[in-house]
Amino acid sequence: MKTADIVVVGGGIIGISLAYGLARQGASVTVLDNAKGMYSASRGNFGLVWVQGKGLGMPRYAEWTLEAAEKWHNFSQELTEKTGNVIDYEQPGGFEVCLGEKEWSLRKSELEQLRDEFPGGNYDNQMLDRKQMQEYIPEMPLGENVTGASYSPHDGHLNPLKLLTALITALEETGAALDTDQQVESVAYRKKCFEIKNAKDSYYAKKVVLACGLGIKELAQQVGLNIPIRPQRGQILVTERTKPLLKYPFVTIRQTHEGSFMLGASHEEVGFDTETTLDQMRNIASHAVQTFPELSRLQLVRCWGALRILTPDAKPLYVESETCPGAFVVTSHSGITLTPLHVNLLPKWILEGDAPGGFEQFHLKRFDA
Ligand SMILES: Cc1cc2nc3c(=O)[nH]c(=O)nc-3n(C[C@H](O)[C@H](O)[C@H](O)COP(=O)(O)OP(=O)(O)OC[C@H]3O[C@@H](n4cnc5c(N)ncnc54)[C@H](O)[C@@H]3O)c2cc1C
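Above: the input record for the complex with flavin-adenine dinucleotide. Below: its predicted structure, written as tokens.
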């Protein structure tokens, strides 16, 4: 009989982060992941640790994101010391470009709303005009359509594949079990214990955490939770490598440590379709070249489509089942950004019910209305 204190279903960035945090607290943990699954946001994302613009209408999420960003520096250092894996994390601050006055005014009013809503009002994003923006990046001439940008000193970026590898290494060092060829088919709750089944085996655990991205919906129903998530496709382009040019990440453009530019990302409601399309690739490339005309001299070498896991308000969802206590659902867009909190704070909630202040705002109940 295979047993664990906690079974985590899903071995993407969120499942591995939670499992690592839980194992560090002394729980015996098994992670079951179907690595051959078609959908892995953790392997297809843009790699931003991003604060600006997040949390409109839910100040707790704005705070939560900022808290995560503040923890990233120490977290990445600890992870590298522990595993020897460098994840290319940098926090130089980040930009979101505005092409035209309309975009600039809209962004400005969004930031004003965020600032008004933010507890204490000390939300330090700022709007920069074109000249101020160019002063940050003199080596990259701006396109003529650039009006300016919003800027946050808290934003940064990293290599998300290296992050996932480092977390898996850290998890394995705790002695937790990670099985990456396991499509979980059912979760049943009997006598205060969960039976988690795949095609071959049954696992028994006191608690189960469903962190399997787009696979959550089906399994959550079996523990009494109706989870309103949907896929949304984002396409990303990658250029050939070039010399270091752009120190700051933009929400749609960043230069990696290796020298490639990553350009992204579309927002497409196309169901479970991960194909790439010429029209979206053209839009993404055109937006990048309008921002920095110099990018037009670089060849594109790769592109892909990946699916975001979105709740109706695109904010995180953390919930325990009332009918099957001990069954948890954890899902979030921004799973990269929130990693330090998923590793360090959520395990206390799962193990002891000790949730951070204001945590109830991330509950499913917000969608009841
Ligand atoms: C285009 C794009 C750009 C993004 N950019 C950013 C960004 O810049 N910054 C940021 O913070 N976030 C970004 N995100 C969001 C981020 O990638 C996600 O929040 C995060 O990866 C979600 O991780 P996850 O572990 O929940 O899901 P996934 O990575 O999807 O992992 C879920 C895992 O569960 C497995 N699984 C599913 N069903 C089952 C089952 N029944 N049994 C066993 N295993 C199962 C899957 O195979 C998969 O391995 C982006 C996402 C996309 C798509």
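Notes for the reader.
The two ends are 43 Å apart (CA to CA).
The longest strand covers residues 300-310.
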